[in-house]
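SAMPLE LOG
Freezer: B-3
Tube label: C17
Construct: single chain, 298 aa
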Amino acid sequence: MLLKHDVIFDEEHDRYCKFNLDIRWAMKGDHSNCRADKNSDRIRKYDCVCCGYSTCENENCKVYNLPRRPPARKNAVCKELNEGCKSCSGTLAHKPCPARVVYIFSKKGCTMSHINMHSHGQYSRKHLSMEQNNAMDNYVEKNPTLRPKGATVSIDSRTGTIISSTQEIDPILSNRQRTRYETRKAKERMNITSLGDDPVKPFLKINNAYPGYLTAASVLPDLVLISFWGPSMPSCARISMFSIATDVTYKAVGSYYLCSSLIYSVESRRHVVIFQALNRSIISALFYNTLFSSKRKP
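STRUCTURE (predicted):
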């Protein structure tokens, strides 16, 4: 089969470059950039072997015997096997596959030869499809307060009623952690918030235990800002000697921006975080007003 994409030969490194050998199977290179013709320096062979598949050996698991895409590296495969099945925590097994693919590169393009048959079917999805995401959105919209445990076992623990299970959307959603993750993503797509996603509550607990930790808070609809720093931080901030660097991380806490201000500390001989804030926008004027107002406090 002749591949459609163009191939470019790198004269400096004596090899072809800027090509994609992905054919939707987990493949790893066995021999690469080998000369396939002694009479021509521009004909090269790339030999790839199938990495096989991983599967759950628990017959009661919803994803039992379904082929999963394995990692390409051996140490990553060992790590996956040690972690076990993400759906039932059962034993995972890695199965080999005899399939090989040989690519021959020349000036005319790339020819692919498929050798042997795969010992497994198409890999099960690691990510939900567009249709499954839509189904998950509808499920969360109908059950906005349902917990992951109830979603996987088909029983709403708050009402005791029998409901549909997320496993009907995809077998991988029999795992509570994965269901919790997909539920949170669905809520983000629909701009649904819950009490468990409230970023204010944890800071109030911290401030009760450590007075002076919170410096300011604003929870207006169009202006959300919660700023905090350690009470001893002002003694480390020598603004007259060093400049302040501010970094922003999105979705560090829920859907908020985490703004962190750092300054060089002579005592620790490194930059330290002296002030942080959760902000709805990237960086607002209120952030800097709160920062320098806190610095002026005795």
